[in-house]
Each structure stands twice: as structure tokens, then as C-alpha cells.
Specification:
two-stranded parallel sheet, mainly alpha
Length: about 90
């Protein structure tokens, strides 16, 4: 089934219970990978990390750049914006 956007795909996963949003702050260094490893070992759902501490500056921006390059290689067009999440409740 083709999807019009990544958002459409995420919404479908969420509705079917195949995706869990992680809104608590997590570190991109070891914490995210450990959480992903444990969930994967248990056959759990996909994870969407919404609040990754220092993602813009981790490894001088190489982490975020790597993520963008991976998504672009899959055919996604990316736009991003840094927001203050506290203003969104």
C-alpha cells in the first residue's frame, strides 16, 4: 500500500498499534539504542522518539545529518524546524 507521506505511514502504524510515541527526553548516545534494542527483542512496536536531547548538536550535527541522508536515500524530501516544545503543551 503506497503512502502519500511519512505522516500517512506513521498515522497508519499508530492506528494499528504498531507504533508508540516516546515523548520523554532521551539521549541519542546510548539511551535510545538501549530502548530500541529491548523493544525489538520483545517483538514490540516501532518507536517514534519525539524529544531527543541534543540531537542538533550531537557529534557536531553528524547524527542529524546521517538521519536526513538516510531518509533522502529512501526518496523523502525533508524540511525541518526547531521549535520550543514547551509552547505546544
Amino acid at each position: 500500500m503506497p503512502y502519500g507521506s511519512l505522516r500517512d505511514f506513521v498515522e497508519r502504524l499508530e492506528k494499528s498499534g504498531e507504533l508508540v510515541r516516546v515523548s520523554e527526553p532521551v539521549s541519542p548516545v546510548l539511551e535510545m539504542t538501549e530502548i530500541q534494542k529491548r523493544v525489538l527483542e520483545e517483538g514490540g512496536p516501532a518507536l517514534l522518539f519525539e524529544n531527543v536531547k541534543g540531537l542538533l548538536s550531537n557529534q557536531r550535527g553528524h547524527t542529524l545529518s546521517f538521519i536526513f541522508k538516510q531518509l533522502e536515500s529512501l526518496g523523502y524530501f525533508l524540511e525541518w524546524l526547531v521549535i520550543d516544545s514547551l509552547t505546544f503543551g
